[in-house]
Amino acid sequence: MDDIILTDNQPALVNQFITQLAQQFSLKDLGSLTYFLGIEVVPHSHGILLSQHRYIQDLLAWTNMTGAKPVSIPQPTSPSISLHSGTTLSDPTEYRTIIGSLQYLSMTRPEITYAVNKLSQYMHQPSIEY
């Protein structure tokens, strides 16, 4: 299954193109775009607004962090993390999955980019420190 998004300021052209595609391929028109690959598409008077609010809520629920308090700086300034501190995780899969999800999230949330980049430097040997 392949997905494609078609958009134009002239809906008649989009409908005509969809009709032409349907003559050559089996397709299903899902109508107006509202959510695609973790990104909400909200119509706005000046165009569209892209948001990952729902993606963030799902990520917080999956990591059991829905009750976490928001902070203005996403990474503590001290103590600094190190490759050789803490106990190495026996299964780093969850850590890598979360970091990958945060990397995807940084597309619409650039303020977390530095912290996510710093944490991704430890994906080959993540550890936990108490």
Give structural notes:
It contains four helices and five strands, in the order αβββαβααβ. The protein is of the alpha+beta class. The strands form two sheets. Strands 1-2-3 form a three-stranded antiparallel sheet. A hairpin with a 2-residue loop joins β1 (35-36) and β2 (39-44). α3 (93-105) packs antiparallel against α4. The longest helix has 14 residues, at 11-24. It is elongated and about 60 Å long. The model has no long low-confidence stretch (mean pLDDT 86).
Structural class: alpha+beta
Number of beta strands? 5
Strand order of the largest sheet: 1-2-3
Largest sheet: 3 strands, antiparallel
Mean pLDDT: 86
Task: Draw up the topology in text.
Layout: H1 11-24, E1 35-36, E2 39-44, E3 47-51, H2 53-62, E4 87-88, H3 93-105, H4 113-120, E5 127-128
Antiparallel strand pairs: 1-2, 2-3, 4-5
Helix pairs in contact: 3-4
Write a concise keyword list for the protein shown above.
single chain, 130 residues, alpha+beta, two-stranded antiparallel ribbon, 4 helices, 5 strands, 35% helix, 13% strand
Short description:
The chain is 35% helix and 13% strand.
